[in-house]
Amino acid sequence: MQKKYENKILLVDDDTKNLQVAMNILKDYNVIYAQSGDKALDLLEKNKFDLILLDVVMPVMDGYYVCSKIKQNEKTKKIPVIFLTVKDDEKDIVRGFELGAVDYITKPFYSEVLLKRVEVHLKLASVMNELQVVNTNLNVLVKEQVSQIRQKDEIIVRQSKISAMASIIDVISLQWKHPLDKIKLYLQSLDLKLANIDEFKSDDIFKRTLVEVNKLDEIMIDFHKFFNNQKNKEDVNLQVSLDNAIFSLKDELNSLNIILNIKGNNLLSLNIVFDEIKHIFNKLIAKSIENFKSSEFLDKKQIDVSFEEKNDTIYIIYSDNANNYDKNLMEKYLLTTNSFNYSNFDLGFYLVKVFVEKNFGLLSVKKTEDGIKYIIRFDK
User: Fold this and answer.
1) Mean pLDDT across the chain, nearest whole number?
2) Does domain 8-109 have CATH number 3.40.50.2300?
3) How far apart are CA 70 and CA 81, in angstroms?
4) Where are the domains of the chain?
5) Averaged pLDDT, 24-38
6) Are 236 and 277 in contact, with CB atoms under 8 Å apart?
7) How far apart are CA 287 and CA 325, in angstroms?
8) Cα gap 182→184, rounded to integer Å
9) How many angstroms separate the CA atoms of 190 and 371, rounded?
10) Does the pLDDT at position 250 exceed 80?
11) Which of 261 and 332 is assigned the larger pLDDT?
């Protein structure tokens, strides 16, 4: 039968008459009774109770001993215990409190007294449980905020170091770019001239050299992006910057039949250098394309991008279902300061992290069941 209250109470008394009286008074609660301490402890192991009414005087195992066992058990020690006793001796009462009881009620029972004591301690226990949950949540929140503050402090230190050498390296990258362009032109000319000479027809050394020079050229372009401090921030619509990034990769997306879904608030704007946010989207999509090319047995290739705003924080959530990501490698690319040590390091992709942090954002990478998810957070 459905009770008025959902609370579950354990009533422990060896006297049948006392049990009947107490259960009649507490008829609106879910009451389970035990007529011995041993049975009570067994019920506590198998059930979850909100309150325990415990008789002091019982054969074999008295209430004091049962209470001490309850309070020694991690599973039951927080359940409030009210002693039921015919004694009103001060020493007995004090002993009960010392063992962890929250209250005592003398027999014979008075209906209103028993009901009111039970009601008060059930409410008190509920409030204490709620406080504990709030406290736990606050501790987690504080740890998260402290972690984010530390990350942002590290970002500030790194940005100050980058700013100190930015103009010098920016000049160097531009100086290298000029001879690189000439080398590319010379190689292309040589490749054309030698294409009709039988001795060189099957030799693709110039083509392979040109590929490597193009890679070096791309690195120089990324270096210039990295260290160029001349461009000013502006309010950039995220949807527009994403569309710009997609445009340059549209042919590859179409050739691989990759579906790109864009969700969320398409009016969100971010104060950032346009080329930086475009680079972030461009490299994430390019990395997805790279992994889709080497993925096998995918019936549906999909990229999802969503824009959300919560409590003055903008979230960009990017995911794909390319199922061949190496999580450890992704973390090495993006989450360590020693990324440059890896032979297959991709500076352009690493700049995703740099540009996020340059704008005091946070980037996290999660390996999902189907692929990977990037969560980028910018606080306004």
Assistant:
1) 81
2) yes
3) 9
4) 8-109, 133-229, 231-380
5) 91
6) yes
7) 10
8) 5
9) 43
10) yes
11) 261
Contact between 351 and 279 under an 8 Å Cβ cutoff? The reply is yes
Convert the pLDDT of each residue in 276-288 to its tens digit: 899 899 999 998 9
Q: Which residue has the tokens 């389970």?
A: 32
Six-digit token string for 293: 């090319």
Spatial contact of 285 and 246, defined as CB atoms under 8 Å apart = yes
**pLDDT interval class at 197 (50, 70, 90):** low
Spatial separation of the C-alpha atoms in residues 376 and 380, rounded to whole Å: 13
Please give, one letter per residue, the 3-state secondary structure of the chain.
CCCCCCCEEEEECCCHHHHHHHHHHCCCCEEEEECCHHHHHHHHHHCCCCEEEEECCCCCCCHHHHHHHHHHCCCCCCCCEEEEECCCCHHHHHHHHHCCCCEEEECCCCHHHHHHHHHHHHHHHHHHHHHHHHHHHHHHHHHHHHHHHHHHHHHHHHHHHHHHHHHHHHHHHHHHHHHHHHHHHHHHHHHHHHCCCHHHHCCCHHHHHHHHHHHHHHHHHHHHHHHCCCCCCEEEEHHHHHHHHHHHHHHHHHHCCEEEEEEECCCCEEEECHHHHHHHHHHHHHHHHHHHHHCCCCCCEEEEEEEEEECCEEEEEEEECCCCCCHHHHHHHHCCCCHHHCCCCCHHHHHHHHHHHHCCEEEEEEECCCCEEEEEEEEC
The answer to whether the pTM exceeds 0.70 is no
53 within 8 A of 84, measured Cβ to Cβ: yes
| pLDDT at 345 > cutoff 90 | no
Q: Are 84 and 18 in contact (CB under 8 A)?
A: yes
Q: What pairing do the DSSP bridges indicate for beta strands 269-272 and 234-237?
A: antiparallel
pLDDT (tens digit, 9 = 90+) per residue, 304-316?
999 999 988 999 9
Instruction: Tell me which CATH code domain 231-380 carries.
Output: 3.30.565.10
pLDDT (0 to 100) of residue 81: 93
CB 83 within 8 A of CB 104: yes
* Token pair in block for residue 159: 């940005």
